[in-house]
Amino acid sequence: MPARHQKGFTLIELLVVISLISLLASMVLASLSSARDKARYARAKSDIYQLRTAMLVYKDDRGELPPIGDNCSACFNPPGAEWKLVIDDLVNNGYLSGRIDTDPWGNYYGYDDNDCNAGSSASYVFTAGADKINWTGDEYGPVLITPGC
Question: What is the pLDDT of residues 117-126, one digit of tens each?
Answer without folding.
Answer: 555 577 888 8
